[in-house]
């Protein structure tokens, strides 16, 4: 048995204006999970501690919370792995959400972003007109099984630094779930789905891989890249800055072997987008004053033909 | 089924002994930004290498690493571009490629992992490299200069080489996503609680500032995507650093440097003035090891770090 101090965030939106913390001492086997410790505290010490839980085995996705500042499922985190030297574990609600009561948060923005996806199969034809079952080959299914493991626990959404400053961003889970339908051979709305998720700022993903901590190994970070490639392959919403940025980047590497920073800025914003270019001018002026502006004309690297051979062999799109 | 070229019990190499480590001659991949808008990083790295007594042999015909962005157009191209770079290092007899950019580190290591883990992907890369007579044999390890400082030089040695201790300067580490995440690609240290930068700061006589923003994203890759988002990400992180007492920031990544150095001003309206000067890792190490401050390109920074260095009696 071990004595553990649970240092818990306490707040009730119905009565409180500011949160406070309670330290609850529990005497439990050290091998139990953080969720077990919370259940023990609620059952034996303070019945008012609120948190969401159901399955206790990383299936339902209810108990994601911040444990010592790290977001994850309480049922999948062992106390002995996280307990600090002073015997405490600090528990807070998921960031990027409005707290409701203690560790329970308002999940609405997260569900709203799911709902916008129309997260159900929309086949090309009606079931009544379809004479046989809709079959999927094992190879086609293989692309979907990982992402179908998503339990909508919102850990990735809570970890996302873009969501934290811009709630308009769809967030990792919704984009991964969009992928699940975009790559489903039975679905008939592929391009509409790509357009929808592009509008919900698919290209605002910052490539930070914070969502690589997915407790179910959905790896939304790679699924986001998959959806971007699908957008470029199908040429959907190509006039946005995101796809332009990716293609100008690729073109620069193909032509020069390296990145042309100055060209990348113009190419992404739009070479004739005077308003957009004016907006980056103050920063450009500041950088120029320090001799930091990238050179407008650049020489290709030695043996750049080899790089072009690589691009051509793989048929990489550059426009 | 594809087979793996890695021994079963061996993860992606980042600690193994290399010939480069014995001979102190390393392959050097500076990356695009250190050659373009952050030349001060390239220059101070070369000055630091002199002080450390190591030779960094620049792979001058190397291409861009792909920087995560080319993944958005094609899943294979970054891997093959990097295989070409590794083949160049091998041809020079170098088995250790050193980077000075978090994004280069992460994406070059990811490419190497994919190549070493799958014979199929290695064959695909070599089939293309064969068109111009190159071949990658899988013998290269990619590491950041930060890891070289700790593994090959050692913190004790580094501490003993310091001639200008930082007088307790409070420095906030800012790692940059791609040197720590995804953890199964980098894996040199814990991605959730890294401490290599803190260890270096303390070895130099500074005081490391602990704050939640140190492993978060600077927003560099989306700075052109939607106005204000990247600046807000910078502001949020720098606010945390400032509130925890930071006087300056250190980063192993020139992309983070560009974002942190140039966006704090734009973020001030929402996050308040922070004005934290940002050092490139090699600048601060080279300074403590005795390289004259005026050679480090500190005048190239938008937020001039010399102000805080004067306050701390580091320069006059």
Query: Low-confidence spans of chain B: pLDDT under 50, at least 5 residues?
Result: 1-11
* Percent helix range of chain B: 40-55%
Given helix and strand content, the structural type of chain B is alpha/beta
Oligomer: heterodimer
| CATH fold group of the largest domain in chain A | Fumarate Reductase Iron-sulfur Protein, Chain B, domain 2
N to C succession of SSEs of chain A: EEHEEHEEEHHHHHHHHHHH
**In this structure, how is the largest beta sheet of chain B organized?**
4 strands, parallel
What is the count of distinct domains of chain A? 3
What summary fits the major beta sheet of chain A? 5 strands, mixed
Chain-averaged pLDDT of chain A = 94
* Shape annotation of chain B: globular
Task: Tell me the layout of helices and strands.
The complex is a heterodimer of chains A (319) and B (316).
Chain A: E1 2-10, E2 20-28, H1 34-44, E3 64-67, E4 70-73, H2 79-82, E5 88-92, E6 99-101, E7 104-105, H3 108-115, H4 138-148, H5 155-159, H6 161-165, H7 172-182, H8 190-199, H9 220-234, H10 241-256, H11 261-269, H12 274-289, H13 304-313
Parallel strand pairs in A: 1-5
Antiparallel strand pairs in A: 1-2, 3-4, 3-5, 6-7
Chain B: H1 19-23, E1 25-29, H2 32-35, H3 39-52, E2 55-58, H4 77-91, E3 96-99, H5 102-117, H6 119-129, E4 141-144, H7 145-153, H8 155-161, E5 170-173, H9 196-203, E6 207-208, H10 229-243, E7 248-251, H11 254-271, E8 278-280, H12 281-288, H13 306-311
Parallel strand pairs in B: 1-2, 1-3, 3-4, 5-6, 5-7, 7-8
Report on the architecture of this protein.
The complex is a heterodimer of chains A (319) and B (316). Chain A is of the alpha+beta class and 319 residues long. Helices cover 41% and strands 11% of the residues of chain A. Chain A has helices at residues 34-44, 79-82, 108-115, 138-148, 155-159, 161-165, 172-182, 190-199, 220-234, 241-256, 261-269, 274-289, 304-313; strands at residues 2-10, 20-28, 64-67, 70-73, 88-92, 99-101, 104-105. Chain A has a five-stranded mixed beta sheet with strand order 2-1-5-3-4. In chain A, strands 6-7 form a two-stranded antiparallel sheet. In chain A, strand 6 (99-101) and strand 7 (104-105) form a beta hairpin. In chain A, helix 7 (172-182) runs antiparallel to helix 8 (190-199), helix 7 (172-182) packs across helix 9 and helix 10 runs antiparallel to helix 11 (261-269). Chain A is globular and about 70 Å long. Chain B is α/β, with parallel strands linked by helices. In chain B, helix 4 (77-91) packs across helix 5 and helix 5 packs across helix 6 (119-129). Chains A and B meet through helix 6, helix 9, helix 10, helix 11 and helix 12 of A and helix 2, helix 4, helix 10 and helix 11 of B.
């Amino acid at each position: 048995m071990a004595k553990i101090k649970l240092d818990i965030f306490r707040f009730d939106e119905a009565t409180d204006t500011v949160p406070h913390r309670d330290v609850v001492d529990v005497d439990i086997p050290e091998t139990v999970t953080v969720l077990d410790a919370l259940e023990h505290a609620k059952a034996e010490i303070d019945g008012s501690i609120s948190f969401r839980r159901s399955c206790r085995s990383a299936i339902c996705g209810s108990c994601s919370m911040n444990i010592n500042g790290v977001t994850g499922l309480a049922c999948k985190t062992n106390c002995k792995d996280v307990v600090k030297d002073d015997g405490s574990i600090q528990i807070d609600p998921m960031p990027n959400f409005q707290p409701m009561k203690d560790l329970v948060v308002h999940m609405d923005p997260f569900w709203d972003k799911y709902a916008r996806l129309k997260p159900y199969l929309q086949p090309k034809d009606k079931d009544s007109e379809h004479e046989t079952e809709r079959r999927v080959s094992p190879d086609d299914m293989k692309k979907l099984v990982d992402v179908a493991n998503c339990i909508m626990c919102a850990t990735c959404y809570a970890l996302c630094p873009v969501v934290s400053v811009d709630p308009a961003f769809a967030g990792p889970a919704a984009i991964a779930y969009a992928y699940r339908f975009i790559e489903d051979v039975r679905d008939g709305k592929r391009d509409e789905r790509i357009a929808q998720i592009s509008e919900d700022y698919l290209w605002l993903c910052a490539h930070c891989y914070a969502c690589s901590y997915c407790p179910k190994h959905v790896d939304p970070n790679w699924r986001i890249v998959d959806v971007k490639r699908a957008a470029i392959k199908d040429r959907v919403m190509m006039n946005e800055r995101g796809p332009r940025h990716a293609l100008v980047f690729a073109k620069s590497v193909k032509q020069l072997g390296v990145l042309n920073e100055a060209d990348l800025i113009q190419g992404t914003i739009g070479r004739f987008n005077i308003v957009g270019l004016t907006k980056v001018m103050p920063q450009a002026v500041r950088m120029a004053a320090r001799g930091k502006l990238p050179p407008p004309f650049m020489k290709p690297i030695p043996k750049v033909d080899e790089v072009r051979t690589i691009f051509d062999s793989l048929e990489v799109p550059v426009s | 089924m594809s087979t793996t070229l890695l021994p079963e019990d061996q993860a992606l190499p980042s600690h193994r002994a290399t010939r480069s480590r014995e001979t102190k001659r390393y392959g050097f991949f500076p990356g695009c930004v250190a050659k373009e808008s952050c030349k001060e990083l390239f220059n101070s790295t070369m000055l630091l290498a002199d002080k450390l007594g190591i030779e960094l042999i620049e792979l001058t015909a190397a291409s861009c690493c792909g920087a995560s962005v080319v993944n958005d157009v094609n899943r294979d191209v970054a891997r093959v571009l990097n295989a070409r770079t590794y083949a160049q290092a091998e041809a020079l007899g170098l088995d250790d490629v050193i980077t000075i950019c978090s994004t280069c580190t992460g994406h070059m290591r990811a490419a190497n992992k994919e190549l070493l883990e799958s014979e199929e992907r290695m064959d695909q890369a070599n089939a293309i490299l064969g068109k111009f007579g190159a071949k990658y044999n899988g013998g290269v390890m990619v590491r950041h200069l930060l890891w070289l400082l700790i593994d090959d030089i050692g913190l004790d040695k580094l501490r003993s080489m310091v001639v200008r201790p930082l007088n307790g300067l409070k420095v906030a580490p800012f790692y940059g996503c791609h040197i720590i995440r995804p953890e199964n690609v980098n894996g040199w240290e814990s991605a959730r609680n890294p401490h290599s930068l803190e260890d270096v700061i303390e070895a130099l006589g500074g005081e490391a500032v602990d704050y939640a923003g140190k492993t978060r994203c600077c927003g560099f890759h989306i700075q052109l995507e939607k106005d204000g988002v990247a600046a807000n990400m910078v502001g949020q992180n720098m606010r945390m650093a400032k509130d925890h007492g930071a006087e300056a920031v250190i980063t192993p990544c020139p992309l983070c440097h560009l974002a942190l150095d140039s966006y704090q001003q734009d973020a001030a309206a929402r996050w308040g003035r922070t004005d934290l000067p940002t050092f490139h890792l090699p600048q601060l190490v080279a300074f403590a090891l005795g390289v004259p401050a005026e050679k480090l390109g500190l005048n190239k920074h938008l937020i001039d770090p010399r102000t805080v260095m004067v306050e701390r009696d580091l320069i006059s």
